[in-house]
Design a protein that fits this description.
The chain is mostly helical and about 190 residues long. It is built from three helices and no strands. The protein is rod-shaped.
Length: about 190
């Protein structure tokens, strides 16, 4: 009789728990997994207590079936909750993965833009270096041209000097030839 009263009070508690909705816990809540394992162990303990207390004799009794159906429904609800939590966790990971993909795509596009800018800047730098080399070459060429013109001017002045000297030597040579011719004529007149 006492066992029947315990089974009835248990079914009343079950009916009372059906009336009150449960608050769903987030997947990050670590207590949900520990509470579900505690609930399962509690359920097994109650079932074993019911079976050991002679409820197996009353298997046709509606309260015994009621308790077993309660436990099976509760187990189904717990497994459904666990699946839902796993699905939420998967969805969270999926959202995180999608966010990471979007971030990666954005960073890749920025990297490509930066690479293109780098190529443009390198081309501009090369052009500037080429202009600088050309200007250096131009200034070097101007410098060499100036040196060449100075050396040519020097050579011209030296050649003008040599021409003057040659002209003087030529006139001197002509004078000496004339004197020599005159001397030869004098000598020939004297020898006759």
């Amino acid at each position: 009789m006492q066992r029947l009263e315990e089974a009835r009070s248990m079914s009343c508690q079950l009916a009372h728990s059906k009336d009150h909705p449960r608050v769903r816990k987030s997947p990050s809540d670590s207590s949900s997994s520990s509470s579900s394992s505690a609930n399962e162990s509690l359920r097994h303990e109650r079932l074993s207590r019911l079976n050991s207390s002679g409820m197996s004799d009353l298997s046709n009794d509606t309260t015994g079936n009621h308790a077993e159906s309660y436990f099976s429904r509760r187990e189904n609800r717990l497994s459904a909750r666990k699946k839902a939590e796993e699905e939420m966790a998967r969805n969270d990971y999926k959202k995180m993965y999608e966010k990471a993909l979007v971030t990666n795509q954005r960073l890749k596009s920025r990297l490509e833009t930066s690479k293109q800018e780098l190529v443009v800047i390198q081309e501009q730098l090369q052009r500037a270096q080429q202009k600088e080399r050309k200007s250096e070459l131009g200034s070097t060429m101007l410098e060499t041209e100036k040196k060449d013109s100075r050396s040519l001017t020097k050579k011209i002045s030296e050649m003008e000097e040599q021409v003057k000297v040659k002209a003087e030597l030529h006139t001197e040579n002509q004078r000496l030839k004339d004197e020599n011719g005159a001397l030869i004529r004098v000598i020939t007149k004297l020898s006759k």
